[in-house]
Amino acid sequence: MRIVVIGGTGLIGTAAIALLQRQGHDAVPASPSTGVDTLTRAGLDGALAGASVVIDVADARSFDGDAALRFFETSTRHLVAAEAAAGVGHHVALSVVGADRLADIGYFRAKLAQENLVSSSSIPFTIVRATQFFEFLMRIVDAATDDEAVRVAPVLIQPVAADDVAAEVGRLSAGPPANGVVEIAGPQRFRFDELVWDDLSARDDPRTVVTDERARHYGALLSERSLLPDDGVRLGPTRFADWLRHRRTAVTQA
User: Fold this and answer.
1) Segment 43-53, tens digit of pLDDT
2) Rounded to whole angstroms, how far apart are CA atoms 144 and 26?
3) What is the pLDDT of residues 73-99, one digit of tens each?
4) Which CATH architecture has domain 2-253?
5) Nearest one of 181, 199, 180 to 130, comparing CA atoms
6) Given 83, 146, 158, 225, which is the most exposed site by the fewest CB atoms within 10 A?
7) End-to-end CA distance of the chain
8) pTM for this entry
9) Cβ neighbours of residue 178 under 8 Å, at least 6 residues apart?
10) How large is the average pLDDT for residues 27-38?
11) 56, 224, 202, 213: which is closest to 137 by C-alpha?
């Protein structure tokens, strides 16, 4: 089965393609570096020729809400139109847990707009909402840092390894469309401030973690469960401590 992965040269796309190819699928990347631009439609029609499935894991270059909204709306409109013309039978879109309830975060609003365009199109679909990636925790830390202090609310979080997300995206893409939302998270829940402390300690990062119930997450005030998935979530197998050990080994061997 031919599966085209939009954003296939990035973190999730690369891993998903490798998995699908090992399973015997004709999985190929489509991104600006391969001559495909969903914003301009350059190369898009040719890339989708003969495709049964399209996986969209492309991300906006900016976390700014307005910029992200322009990217996801333009890209998704072009993509579903090209899929309809090519006869694609399954669109798999990667989104984020909380997109439907954290409207104060501009990026989340943009992801929800993307979801709505996908679900209202004529293409059978599966939307995969993932919790925060282990790999991106430091982006959150940097955004929450003020004068070497990281202000984090003591809310619950259930982050996931990017490889586990890629595996679930690949598995779902090879199956029938859900025509709905599937969520994936890691196997453990943490208090957000304690997780940040553990990650900083593992990196020998001297920044101080300040637990602050009024700390905002990209502009949004969080309740205890704002970042948690719903019941029925699919759980990736990778535990945070194991991921840390793997990262430490990779850094040592580099």
Assistant:
1) 999 999 999 99
2) 41
3) 999 999 999 999 999 999 999 999 999
4) 3-Layer(aba) Sandwich (3.40)
5) 181
6) 146
7) 36
8) 0.95
9) 125, 126, 127, 172
10) 97
11) 202
